[in-house]
Design brief:
alpha/beta, 9 helices, single chain, seven-stranded mixed beta sheet, Rossmann fold, globular, two-stranded parallel sheet
């Protein structure tokens, strides 16, 4: 079995931040990029229509579409938070495999060939059984403290619930559920008045990259812990526009003038 890592990701500056932090300490065998984001979004919407109904899904879709619009203040704050971090894309430095969906047979073949001791997961769609069986350990970086904040935007929902002390990031083993795998590390972030969906995730990746590096090192030593986690299990989805208004009110209330 190789001591090199494989990263499975959707790509983007925060995922490259994670990659470059890991590359400081560990050899990287390959980076696998899931490229068909449009198909992933369509599958997500179909699932939510079945689970949540039309009204809730439509409201969440408004938030997703709104996230594509310019938000200058949030963008400036996000850039400040990422200052000094290496968000350079892999380019020629690492072997890169681009696949439409992360469960593509080519990814299974790559893992069987490389035999990495650890596969790091960042921002992909759910992994299916054949892929999970191709390597002994998958570790995911999740922007929320599980099991209380499974799903998406865990930091946002912690603030929305009035629990900013529970905004953070989790490193966990990957199973077939949604962020249900065993917890190996958790770190909290500091919430401030300038925070938004975008800035919270940037903060989570800054601390999460360090937590992932420490977790991979522990796994290589055979010392990966099992932690209890935070709160009762619940899965969260994208917020609605009204919930974003509520979040901003909570943020002002919790952080003061």
């Amino acid at each position: 079995m190789s001591d090199r890592l494989v990263l499975l990701t959707a790509g983007g500056d925060l995922h490259w931040l994670l990659l470059n932090r890991l590359a400081q300490d560990f050899p990287i065998a390959a980076v696998v990029c899931e490229t068909d984001q449009a198909a992933i979004r369509r599958a997500m919407l179909r699932h939510r229509l079945r689970k949540l109904g039309y009204a809730a899904t439509a409201a969440q879709l408004l938030t997703i579409l709104g996230g594509r619009l310019p938000h200058p203040a949030a963008a400036r704050r996000r850039a400040e938070l990422l200052a000094g971090a290496d968000c350079t894309p892999p380019a020629e430095r690492f072997a890169v495999l681009a696949v439409p969906r992360i469960n593509d047979a080519a990814v299974v073949e790559l893992l069987q060939r490389e035999q990495p001791a650890v596969v790091v997961v960042s921002g992909t769609s759910l992994l299916r059984a054949p892929l999970l069986q191709a390597a002994p350990l998958f570790l995911n970086i999740h922007c929320g403290l599980t099991p209380r904040y499974r799903g998406v935007h865990g930091g946002f929902w912690a603030v929305w619930e009035g629990r900013p002390q529970d905004a953070g990031v989790t490193i966990h083993r990957v199973d077939r559920g949604v962020d249900t795998g065993g917890i190996v590390a958790q770190e909290r972030i500091v919430v401030d008045r300038q925070d938004s969906l975008e800035t919270l995730v940037a903060k989570q990746y800054r601390v999460g990259a360090e937590a992932m590096a420490a977790s991979v090192a522990a796994a290589r030593r055979g010392e990966l812990p099992n932690l209890p986690g935070v709160g009762e299990s619940r899965q969260w989805y994208h917020p609605t526009p009204w919930q974003i208004v509520q979040f901003r009110r909570q943020l002002r209330r919790l952080t003061g003038p």
